[in-house]
Structures are given as structure tokens and as C-alpha cells.
Design brief:
about 25% helix; alpha/beta; 7-stranded mixed sheet; Metallo-beta-lactamase, Chain A; about 230 residues
Length: about 230
């Protein structure tokens, strides 16, 4: 398995025979280096969107058309994307897709959701979500933008993820302290990868608080843009 950060909440996840682009916001992402897009997205098989805010979804139409692949997301966003000429697979929370050997289940997240990048005001876009991505003997909990929620208890028990990709930069999502609290209370992670941080000044700039809040045995991997993490 290989996980590559694009900055903010964007990831390339290579698992089983799937190459998943998750929330691939590249255009305007201050952390993503110019001139590296083609290499970053080469060979991608699917796009996953947690929700439709511009810092997650504004490149989805362009990349789906460029790569000739489908976008997998909540139903309402898939309907809007269809209208933009994009192939989609819409599904809902609790739904599971089998993508080239990887098992992707949409789970709940607590966050607002709208299409906010068209210049037409805020368009309704269902609700925000996270994903459980299973394959190669591991399960990744990709939280999407969220605060702590009681659903994390049953999600942890049912899916038993050993890798957590947690949005924990604060202000718009849970912060490092809250993410650490949730991780140690409900989950049994072996690895935790923070995201939705460092992008802007109002977000956390490092994961020191997250590291301090987790017990020994959990490795916090602070990702570097385009530097693959191999698990």
C-alpha cells in the first residue's frame, strides 16, 4: 500500500489494484507544487470525494475528464457532476463499493456541505462523509472533514481500522487535541496521518499536539507533499 499526500486533504492511495484520488484539490492548493500534476495523477483508476467544498472537489470535473475515470461520491454531488458531463457512481452512507479489489464504504462525517466554487452562490450538495477503505490486510479510516462524533465508536468497532487519516487542523474540523481524544477513546490505530492542516495560517501547522495526545505504539506520520508513505 502506498499513500501520497497532495497537501490539505488530497491523497493518492494505491491499494490492491486501485489507485484512488481522494479529494484531489490541486489547482489553487498552496501546498501542491506547480508542474507535478501529470505525475501525481498518472494511472489513477477512481476519484473519491468526501464532500463538495471547493478545497476538496473543485478539480473533480477537470481531472475526471482528463483521466477518463469516474467520480465516486454521495448521490446529490454525483447528480451535479453528471450535469457537467462527468461519469459518476453515486452512493450513500453505509454503501460499499468494490473498486479493483479495494472495498470502500461511505461512513458519516459531521460537517457542512455545498458546492461553493461555481460563482452561483451555494448549491445544495447532500452531506459530508468519510470512507473506510479496506485492502491488503489493512483498513483506512479517512475521516473527511468532521468533528468528534459518537458514530466513531461503532465505526471503530465494526470496521476496525488500523490506519487513520484524520482531518485535524482545527477551525473547520476537529483540532489536534480533539482528534487525539477520539483516537485513543475509540480506535485502535497503528498509524495516524493528519491532514487538513498546514494549508493556511488559521490551521494547525504541525502535529505535535496530536502526537502528545496519543499513547505509545501509535505512529503519527506527518506527511510531506508527494513523498509516498509505504505501509
Amino acid at each position: 500500500m502506498q499513500i501520497t499526500w497532495f497537501g490539505h486533504s488530497g491523497f493518492r492511495i494505491e491499494i490492491e489494484q486501485a489507485v484512488l484520488l481522494v479529494d484531489p484539490w490541486l489547482t489553487g492548493n498552496p501546498m501542491f507544487p506547480a508542474g507535478h500534476e501529470d505525475a501525481a495523477v498518472q494511472g489513477a483508476t477512481h476519484i473519491l470525494l468526501t464532500h463538495a467544498h471547493g478545497d476538496h472537489a473543485s478539480d473533480a470535473v477537470r481531472l475526471a475528464k482528463k483521466l477518463g475515470i469516474a467520480v465516486h461520491c454521495i448521490h446529490e454531488v454525483s447528480e451535479w457532476l453528471n450535469g457537467q458531463g462527468v461519469q459518476t457512481v453515486g452512493f450513500g452512507k453505509g454503501g460499499t463499493l468494490h473498486l479493483n479489489g479495494a472495498k470502500v464504504t461511505m461512513v458519516n462525517a459531521v460537517h457542512s456541505a455545498s458546492i461553493d466554487f461555481t460563482g452561483q452562490g451555494l448549491l445544495p450538495a447532500g452531506s459530508a462523509a468519510g470512507f473506510m477503505i479496506a485492502g491488503e490486510g489493512h483498513t483506512i479510516y479517512l475521516s473527511g472533514d468532521t468533528d468528534i462524533m459518537a458514530d466513531m465508536a461503532w465505526m471503530a468497532e465494526l470496521h476496525q481500522p488500523d490506519i487513520g487519516i484524520l482531518s485535524c487542523g482545527g477551525h473547520y474540523t476537529m483540532d489536534m487535541e480533539r482528534a487525539a481524544w477520539a483516537a485513543r477513546k475509540w480506535f485502535n490505530f497503528r498509524w495516524v496521518i493528519p491532514c487538513h492542516y498546514r494549508t493556511f495560517g488559521l490551521l494547525a501547522q504541525d502535529a505535535s499536539v496530536l502526537k502528545a495526545g496519543l499513547p505509545p505504539g501509535i505512529e503519527v506520520i506527518e506527511p510531506e507533499v508527494l513523498d509516498p508513505i509505504r505501509i
